[in-house]
Predict the structure of DUF2520 domain-containing protein.
Amino acid sequence: MDTPMAPARLRVGIISTGRVGTALGEAFAAAGHHVESVYANSPRSAARAAERLPFARVREFSAVVADSQLVVLAVPDTELATVAGDVADHVKPGTIVTHTAGAHGIEVLEPIAHAGGIVLATHPAMTFVGSADDTARLTASCFGVTAADEIGDAIAMALVMELGATPIRIAETSRALYHAALAHGANNLNALITDAVTALRAAIGGPTGDAAETATVDGGGIGLAEQLLAPLVTASLENVLAQGRSALTGPVARGDVDTVARHLDELSDVHEGIARGYRVLAGRAAAQHDAGPALRHLLEAQP
């Protein structure tokens, strides 16, 4: 105990030091825990650990598990069940074991619970790019938290809040839906913005196809299309998060059938896949806003 009111400091082990594991290792260390050992399953991961977690030893898998009071399983969803089985072979009773996979709750950690571990699911709802910025973003993020009982819930909530983040309880039976919603909002946003940038580059380049793809503003690192789109997308995101569907503007909100039809034609000339994406998302917006039958018919019609 650091002070009479402080939570106990834990010996933390990280499995493994990818983008998420490294950021969490830094965050737990900043919160005062002792991140003493990590498992790195590749030279790249080992180099990342040496650079960003120099206070931790790169050790064998079994040693990290056996010598830690808190084990963080920062492995891909597809590998989690196998890793959980391996952890169960080495875990000591009373050890806290949490994973960072969004789609799984605690059922996947059942072998560890059977061996006496306290199992948690603490998924950071954040995207990670592999830099120190990831750790800073954790303090502004939320974690989807699932535990087996009130004791596990209290531990999970405390650990997340110590990082400066916000814990949100997700039922075991809702983990897949929770993860699907996040992927739809964040991962599919990547596809949406990529399509919008592609179409803007075509518009900026004009019929001659000038070098809009590589053009930048004042020699900066961001392209003209990205520069044009960024303020609008940022404002739209802020507005919809604050105001919900009522924040919608543009031709669908106005019921402007002719403009939407022209959009579909122009986007089809750039790439039919972009037009299909526009049709689906505009159709969802039209349905949410009870658009008139003419607009809904246009968006529901097969191209």
Observations:
- Residues 11-170 form a domain with the Rossmann fold fold (CATH 3.40.50.720).
- Residues 1-6 have pLDDT under 50 and may be disordered.
- DSSP finds 13 helices and eight strands in the chain.
